[in-house]
Amino acid sequence: MEKEFYSNGKLLLSGEYAILDGALGLAIPTSYGQSLHVTPTTSGFLEWNSLDENDEVWFSAKFDLDNLEVVFTTDEAMAKTLVTILLEANNQNPLLLTDSEGFQIETRLTFSKSWGLGTSSTLINNLAQWARVDAYQLLRNAFGGSGYDIACAQHNSPITYQLQNGEPNVEEINFDPIFKDSLYFVYLNQKQNSKEAIAAYRQRQFDTSELVKEISDLTRRMIKASSLSDFESLMEEHEAYLSPILKMPPVKKRLFPDYFGMVKSLGAWGGDFVLASGDEKTISYFKSKGFKTVVPFSKMVL
């Protein structure tokens, strides 16, 4: 029987890096995501096609169903990663692959895979739904990370996310600020490698408990902010707190020192999207600087 699954993309508005150590983070599922379509076959193979937002194939592979050996692929590294995830899913549910004669699987993104909105997390959550296994465990064993992106994949409203004794605590919240029309997401034209960014963060020396306390407090205040000026102050405070720990300048200072609003990094510093406050001149400002992808808050948030 054919099956279809869908997962939401993700953006972390507060708590980047610190969320790994138990800080409270504010995250939003995006209106963009990824679907996974599974068709049983009798071929003896698992045949895979990944389509981008333009319905063009960006990755293909064919695996022997008995041992998941790669028979053909357009990208060896990607195929190896996929095998890792599939083997882990099969470890958690041994009937997944042994109870069948073959599959055709097609994934379809509704966002550019370079955006960093969760190409991997949406895939893992979709595969977990298909395999009927725990998506957080699948992510943990295959990739690592905090798991907030899995929570976004599974929820349809803004959430707070916190690791408590290593386990995710997720709460849906009402985050619909009256100043949302003054918020924009700007793509920095480069995808950040989360694994490398996390590894670099882990090498830093600082007071972890103090970081967790401060960032958690900032998250709570950001959720409750009643005016744009309050929210901008909190964006700036968040940047200023993390900057010396990461040994990186805040993104506004580094790239947009003449911008009239506030700019805050999201997720791994140095790439993907940033959050900008502004007005009707915001889009033209960033486009003039060569950043063509500027998405208003209400269009990005699910």
Question: Can you describe what's shown?
Answer:
There is one protein chain. Helix 7 packs antiparallel against helix 8 (228-246). The strands form 2 sheets. Strands 1, 2, 3, 4, 5, 6, 7 and 8 form an 8-stranded mixed β-sheet that branches. The protein has a 4-stranded antiparallel β-sheet with strand order 10-11-9-12, with helices on both faces. The chain is α+β, with helices and mostly antiparallel strands. 36% of the residues lie in helices and 27% in strands. The chain contains 11 helices and 12 strands. The protein is globular.
Task: Average the pLDDT over all residues and give the rounded result.
Answer: 94
The proportion of residues in beta strands is 25-35%
How would you spell out the order of helices and strands? EEEEEHHEHHHEEEHHHHEEHEH
Count of helix runs: 11
Radius of gyration: 20 Å
Class of secondary structure makeup: alpha+beta
Largest sheet: 8 strands, mixed
Count of DSSP strands: 12
The global form is: globular
Low-confidence residue ranges: none
Q: Portion of residues in helices?
A: 25-40%
Termini separation: 30 Å
